[in-house]
Amino acid sequence: MDLVRHNRDAWTRETERDNIWTIPVSPEAIDMARKGALSLLLTPTKPVPREWYPALESARVLCLASGGGQQGPILSAAGADVTVFDNCPAQLERDRMVAERDGLSLKTEQGDMRDLSRYPDDSFDMIFHPVSNVFVDDVKVVWRQCHRVLKKGGTLLAGFMNPLAYIFDYEEWEVRGARRIRYKIPYSDLEQLDRAQLEKRIREKETLEFGHRLQDQIGGQIEAGFAITGFYEDKANDGFLDDYIDVCIATKAEKL
To answer: Is there a domain that residue 184 lies in?
Structure first.
């Protein structure tokens, strides 16, 4: 199947549902960013530490798989030269709407996060990549592409999932309230869901996801040539494991 097209359609549906990652920021948030008080999320609840950002004035920033009218407009308001790159046209439309509403300048481009070939080497000073690589099957190619398009000394801010979240049978929890371990890591909806569950997700245009090993998420950044210089964890904010463990991770990485 065409995974990219399926998840594009699924995120169009999520936009119609007003998924939390599709709700545009307010004019007040844009005004605060113009004054230097920006607040951005790589993971569901904890803002990125201010010291993680490089100087943003005139910095070339790629918001990778980051549509929705949230991160891109705020970074633009803070003075950056922003390109928002996302698989979903409906998400990119949210960014264009905020830009028009608040008089911002930013570019939007549709594409697959695994393929940044349209950008030359050393194109960006920073990449902002919130939790989204669960929607692609190969995360290591994402890190290699990020490393290539970043300038030397550039910064990659990334959010991603601890694969622990993918070992459980969520359908069992939704139906019976039981947390049952069922799946192996690395995890793939395409390979590990039973046929009926997979067909239901495809039919109902639910996102298809992958649980990547930390060896590929963190080790993959190091293997690509990055130095990890910042790290924190955050809750998923979905009520499933929040009382037990934070399953979202954010890293700051620098291109050596």
So the answer is: no
